[in-house]
Amino acid sequence: MSAIDANRFREALTQERQRIQAALDNLHDENPGSITDETGEDAVYDNHLADTATVTYDRELDYTLEENAEHVLSDIDSALGRIDDGSYGNCTNCSREIPPERLEARPWATLCIECQRTREGR
Ligand SMILES: [Zn+2]
User: Fold this and answer.
1) For the whole model, what pTM was predicted?
2) For the chain, which terminal residue's Cβ has fewer other Cβ atoms within 10 angstroms, N or C?
3) Cα(56) to centroid of ligand 1, in Å?
């Protein structure tokens, strides 16, 4: 493991985790229940068709955000685990060191830039 300051990254990861978790909680507060609930007994009976379409559209956007956020959350948890086992800062694919600049920008990064590009097909 390189001379990166694991404690500092642990701090950054923990803070980012809290921030994303708060955003997710907020998301859930704004959309309590599911689509099924809203079309159930609490459905707005005089709901205009256009309003329903808008709700669905917003919800799809939220789901996208939520999926991304939960993906990052799992990456953060994995990064915290790798700080604990001492493998943090190394690419999970090729084991080379991830450049510190990259870790500064994305402390939860699991791949070096080369492997990330390969994985994304660029
Ligand atoms: Zn790599």
Assistant:
1) 0.66
2) C
3) 39
